[in-house]
Amino acid sequence: MLYTVGEIAKKLHVAPSTLRYYDKEGLLPFVERSDSGIRLFKDSDMEGLRVIECLKKTGMPIKDIKVFMELCQLGDSTIDERLALIDKQRKTVLEQQKQLQETLDTLNYKHWYYETAAQAGTCAVHDLLTAEDIPEDLRPAYQKLKKTED
Amino acid sequence: MLYTVGEIAKKLHVAPSTLRYYDKEGLLPFVERSDSGIRLFKDSDMEGLRVIECLKKTGMPIKDIKVFMELCQLGDSTIDERLALIDKQRKTVLEQQKQLQETLDTLNYKHWYYETAAQAGTCAVHDLLTAEDIPEDLRPAYQKLKKTED
DNA sequence: GCTTGACTTAAAGTTGACTTTAAGTTTTAT
DNA sequence: ATAAAACTTAAAGTCAACTTTAAGTCAAGC
């Protein structure tokens, strides 16, 4: 089964122009063309597109994704290199998870801060509070916001 | 204690031009100026800057951060609104965490894929494997990559 | 007092990732 | 056979978030 760029775009919920852009940037070395020059996507191309989608979600820039997709085209001699790139990207995602958790911790503190302020009718209530009044799990985030050194 | 834009920039590990840009965009309604027009940051401004940093990490656009910082300047009458914005942003971070975990699951599958291929010396080894040969925790990611409908 | 480095602004430039436009070709449907 | 819809490319436009530049002012150390 073969698909045009518009059909694939619908499947992936992206604009056809996005796929043409990716192709122009070299992310789709696997797509073939009809005699008249129309892109023909195979069922098996979907996996490559999903890999691109995944790498994009890690924040990898287009140019780096291109390198990976090219390695895929080169066959078994590039397996080790591809494994190294996957592992590198895995590390960045783990770091992002850590970062996002810290961000959430801060927002959780702010949520408590404003809920408490809403109860009291004023943010000034927090001037009266000491560290012990802050829920234990929110204290680290509080300390980070308040710290003055660095 | 008062600080110039360059001193604060160092503390936050950002370029001075970034802070001037934020100021121009209205993110820093709290910074004061000397008689000659030089920005003077107070110790207490650090917390506002850390809140901006936090909101930026959630992916919130500059214009939306501006709204939040302006609400902070307006005092206690905006507590409820600020709480609502924090909660909204908290939701987006939870969604991002979910997304990032799915991305990591895919990378974990790919890691296994290439490690297996490296052992065998060829990616073709995966043509011989069935679903049961794939570690159980990696199967959902595998299924997602392979699925052909949608 | 004067140089040097840091500050100021406005405006232009950069980057990445697309999107839109324009002009043309191909395929599909009647 | 022809009109409409979908495809093609190259080039220009957009957007967010900065960064750089240019021209000038201010402040600190010698």
Structure characteristics:
3 strands; mainly alpha; DNA-binding; 3-stranded antiparallel beta sheet; homodimer
Number of distinct helices of chain A: 7
Helix vs. strand class of chain A:
mainly alpha
Please identify the oligomeric state: homodimer
**Which pair has the most extensive contact?**
A-B, 46 and 46 residues
Span of the ends, CA to CA of chain A: 60 Å
Number of strands of chain A: 3
Mean pLDDT of chain A: 97
H/E series of chain A, N to C?
Answer: EHHEEHHHHH
Choose one word for the global shape of chain A.
elongated
Largest β-sheet summary of chain A? 3 strands, antiparallel
**Contiguous uncertain segments of 5+ residues of chain A:** none
Strand order, sheet with most strands of chain A: 1-3-2
Tell me the β content of chain A: 5-15%
* Rg on CA atoms of chain A, Å: 24 Å
In short:
The structure is a homodimer of 150-residue chains. Chain A is mainly α and 150 residues long.
Structural write-up:
By secondary structure, chain A is mainly alpha-helical. Chain A has helices spanning 5-12, 16-24, 45-57, 62-73, 79-120, 125-128, 139-146, and strands at residues 2-3, 32-33, 39-42. Chain A has a 3-stranded antiparallel β-sheet with strand order 1-3-2. In chain A, strand 2 (32-33) and strand 3 form a beta hairpin. In chain A, helix 1 (5-12) packs across helix 2 (16-24) and helix 5 (79-120) packs across helix 7 (139-146). Chain A is elongated, with a radius of gyration of 24 Å. The termini of chain A are far apart. In chain A, 22% of the residues are buried. The structure holds a DNA duplex (30 and 30 nucleotides).
